[in-house]
Amino acid sequence: MKDVLLSSLEYISPRQAQLFKRHEILTVEDLLLNFPTKFDDYTIISIKDAEPEVPLTIAGVVQSKATVTTIKNKLTLMTFYVDVEGRRIRVSIFNRHFLKNRIFYGVYVRLTGKFNANMKAFTASEISFEELSNNITPVFNIKGINNNKVLEIKERVFEDFGEKIIDILPEDLRTRYNLISRFHALKFINIPEDQKEIKLAIKRIKFEELLLYQLKIKYLLYMRKNFPQGVAIKYDQSKVEEFIKKLPFVLTRDQKQAVSEILNDIGSHFKMNRLLQGEVGSGKTVVAAISLYAVTTAGYQGAIMVPTEVLAQQHYKTFKKLFENVNLKIEMLSASITAKERKEILDGLLTQEIDIVIGTHSLFGKEVAFSKLGLVITDEEHRFGVKQRVSIVGKGHLIDHLKMSATPIPRTLAISLLGDSDISVIRTLPGNRKEPITKYLHYQDMTLVHEHILNEIERGRQVYIITPMIEESVVMELENATDIYEKYKSRYQGICEVGLIHSRLKNQEKEEVMQLFQENKIQILVSTSVIEVGVNVINATTCVILDADRFGIAQLHQMRGRVRRSDEQAYCFLVSDSTAETAIARLKLVEENNDGFVLAEEDLIMRGPGDLFGEKQTGNIAFKMADIVLDRDLLEVANTEAEAIINEERIFSEEYQEIHEMVHQNYLEKKEMLD
Ligand code: ADP
Ligand code: MG
């Protein structure tokens, strides 16, 4: 079927073959795997079951002649009466005046359209005089070929080649999940008799897609671990323990667990591909520091990449402090250093004078080369572009890679998009952190917020006021933020200092404002959502989010995380006057819930995966039928099954031979891409 070209079949004309080719349909297999874009259902509904204003099909016998009126130049309206199960219905249909002569007493008609509210009149969009045996028509949208012709060709092809369809799913799997055979699935999806067949076909096709996808991912993981090519870094266990002991705090249980998982990967022969998940303030940075330190004890270098300049600066300072007691050279490579400094750092990386380097995307540059790189850490990796991500890997695909993310990644995405990563999770926050108190309110209740701010300021605390980015216009955004800034400045004049940070400021200016806030020289910081991730000002305990409805659930939670940084009680105000039901539901959910994973899953369901991972990356999973969010239950099943097939090494058995070939091919392609 793969090698039978449509152009070689006598019932397909060269022109038709050409038209199919434009849809990338070249072979018999392509044709059978070209699924309908929709199904038109002309199943006749009994008038007892019909509802007003819902599209449906009815059938009856004409009771009158048709009258045609011309409404406008080209618009005509034809009306006539039909008896449907003993009820007299007035039918109107636009622009079918040419059918006038076919409408007379006693003629059978099938009408697709909608009843009006009182069920006495019917507005039809389609009319047919044939009593069809098949009420469902798949619609294929092959430009230039009539849909009936496509159907006819499909039927012929099925007759000739149907028998050759091999089922790639083993029998036991099909029985277990009540899946029809591949032959039936392809037949039912292309030439269905009724809705039930379509349903069965869709289930089978989706399962196959999801299972294959999960198998490909799990196979990558399997091959990475079982055919290791990386280097085992013999880090100095006692030095690492010493380092941990000298930290200013004791690691939480989750942090310890994460450290041990990471060190285990570092010390093993396979390449680490691990995601460290933990919300803002959960203490990922110190875990990163320990990991970097570990590789240096074995004579390797480490690199950590962050998405913004502000974060790079912050990490640099934190690391300098954390590594105070050990003799390591740490440098920062960013856009804000001079060419001379840059040259020195690049030399230092080559001569291995520098042990650890922190940087923004400037670390990705081709000219950045290491003497002995052992570990790459990326913070908030999903915020980097796809190209940049590839070039991290380009620094050596065998080098251990730790990805950190403060965005709780819902399980649905974790098992699909990130299925070839191992995952460590920091769930509990360090210290005696209390859950923040969140309140959703309207602008008319702002006095409450202002009183609260005053109280907190008097207690020596600091406050964030966040305004949404205005995507359509940077100027509007700036005016909005500036406006708010001016208002707060005059409101709290003589009481405290107010600062402003927005996306139009230069990096250095942002840095200066952040510095002032960090040093508590500014008490209220008005900001657009530019400082979304990672910023660490422990003394800030209140976060006021204006027009909160303009943010997504995950984003709100992320911003709330900024004030969860000390043992002080934190507060978050979600201010919004939106009357949109979904917006209100979202804000209430965030008000009532502090669990990032729950919120992330909700966010995913409401907004789709694009927002979290960027269209490009989610676009990588282009299924014909399945949808990782809508079909998450089936995905879960496919994942469990795939895991078992790989872990029990059934993938290598005869019954999985076809699947194994596909999966292995994918592995070879991926590998080549990385080499
Ligand atoms: P993240 O990078 O996950 O957002 P950080 O690493 O910045 O979080 O940690 C937040 C704060 O918590 C930092 O001030 C850090 O020093 C502190 N911290 C980290 N781990 C612990 C711990 N085990 N006990 C007490 N404080 C900790
Ligand atoms: Mg961090």
Name its key features.
675 residues; alpha/beta; seven-stranded parallel beta sheet; 40% helix; globular; binds adenosine-5'-diphosphate; binds magnesium ion
Give a structural overview.
The radius of gyration is 32 Å and the shape is globular. 40% of the residues lie in helices and 18% in strands. β4 and β5 (87-94) form a beta hairpin. It has 675 residues and is α/β, with parallel strands linked by helices. It has a seven-stranded parallel β-sheet with strand order 11-12-10-13-14-9-15, sandwiched between helices. Strands 16-21-20-17-19-18 form a six-stranded parallel β-sheet, with helices on both faces. Strands 2-4-5-7-6 form a five-stranded mixed β-barrel. The structure holds adenosine-5'-diphosphate and magnesium ion.
Describe the structure in brief:
The protein is of the alpha/beta class and 675 residues long. The strands form four sheets. Strands 11-12-10-13-14-9-15 form a seven-stranded parallel β-sheet, sandwiched between helices. It has a six-stranded parallel β-sheet with strand order 16-21-20-17-19-18, sandwiched between helices. Strands 2-4-5-7-6 form a five-stranded mixed barrel. Bound molecules: adenosine-5'-diphosphate and magnesium ion.
